[in-house]
């Protein structure tokens, strides 16, 4: 069990092996985050597997969340694990038949659950190349889009995606050794600020990719936010960082 007081709940990982297509063993790595009002609220779920594609993992997650909604107000994690052990083959087959519509379907599902946005401020990056590569990998693995932005000494990470993926990103950012300290030893990120975590509104533009960008002036950075319909977000959080 992994307990993170700042997320107001309990997170734990479960690994199960399912006998799957062509008698290949599929190892599913499931991360459940139980909110404080569980089981009146469904848990956040993350799914990873070396034997499945990212799209298939997302389909498994979506199906688990559908099942979770049927078990509201009663403990459900054990039932969800039993369900996916019995139905994984069907979920993967269904995923294969709609692979060409993957983007459309994932966007529809995401919109239904609500797309969230996260704005982080980092104080510094000593091992910049490694740090940037790590952030890019996390964003890719969790299907998050947005920007890693550098302007002078300001470092911002703006992410959009499923709320559960946003939460898992925050856990990774807080618990992984992503940088090095002044003596060159690997260290966790201790000087990160969550400036904003909110649901994406209709006036906000959706980022289609995750990109690393550098800006020479504050005006250039402001234009990036304005193009995404995030002028208010910029005005509230970015100028104070210059003081």
Distance between the termini: 41 Å
Biggest sheet details = 5 strands, mixed
What percent strand? 25-35%
Shape: globular
How many E-type strands? Answer: 11
Low-confidence blocks of residues: 1-7, 98-112
Mean pLDDT: 81
CATH class call of the largest domain: Alpha Beta
Structural class: alpha+beta
Oligomer: single chain
The tally of structural domains comes to 2
Order of helices and strands: EEEEHHHEHEEHEEEEHH
Give the % helix: 25-40%
Question: From the coordinates shown, what is the CATH architecture of the largest domain?
Answer: 2-Layer Sandwich
| Radius of gyration computed on alpha carbons | 19 Å
Q: Which fold name corresponds to the CATH topology of the largest domain?
A: Alpha-Beta Plaits
Number of helices: 7
Keywords: Cytoplasm, Nucleus
Protein name: RWD domain-containing protein 3
Domain RWD: 1-91
InterPro entries: RWD_dom, RWDD3, UBQ-conjugating_enzyme/RWD
Summarize, please.
The protein has 243 residues and is α+β, with helices and mostly antiparallel strands. It has helices spanning 54-69, 77-97, 102-113, 128-141, 163-175, 218-227, 231-237; strands spanning 2-4, 9-19, 25-35, 44-48, 115-122, 145-151, 154-162, 177-180, 186-188, 192-199, 210-215. A five-stranded mixed sheet has the order 10-5-7-6-11. The chain has a four-stranded antiparallel sheet with strand order 1-2-3-4. Strands 8-9 form a two-stranded antiparallel ribbon.
């Amino acid at each position: 069990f992994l307990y993170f007081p700042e997320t107001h709940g309990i997170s734990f990982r479960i690994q199960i092996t399912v006998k799957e297509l062509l008698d290949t063993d599929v190892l599913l790595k499931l991360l459940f985050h139980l909110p404080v009002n569980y089981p009146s609220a469904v848990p956040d779920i993350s799914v990873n597997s070396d034997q499945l594609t990212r799209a298939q993992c997302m389909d498994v997650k979506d199906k688990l969340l559908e099942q979770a909604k049927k078990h509201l107000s009663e403990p459900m994690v054990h039932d969800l694990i039993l369900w996916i052990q019995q139905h994984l083959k069907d979920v993967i087959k269904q995923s294969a038949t709609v692979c060409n519509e993957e983007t459309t379907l994932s966007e529809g599902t995401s919109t239904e659950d609500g797309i969230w946005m996260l704005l982080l401020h980092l104080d510094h990056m000593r091992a910049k190349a490694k740090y940037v590569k790590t952030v890019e990998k996390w964003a890719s693995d969790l299907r998050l889009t947005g920007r890693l932005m550098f302007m002078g000494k300001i470092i911002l990470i703006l992410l959009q995606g499923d709320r559960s993926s946003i939460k898992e990103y925050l856990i990774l950012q807080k618990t992984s050794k992503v940088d090095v300290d002044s003596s060159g030893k690997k260290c966790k990120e201790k000087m990160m600020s969550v400036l904003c975590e909110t649901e994406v509104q209709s006036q906000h533009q959706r980022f289609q990719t995750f990109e690393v960008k550098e800006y020479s002036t504050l005006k250039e950075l402001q234009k990036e936010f304005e193009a995404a319909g995030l002028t208010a977000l910029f005005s509230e959080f970015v100028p104070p960082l210059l003081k």
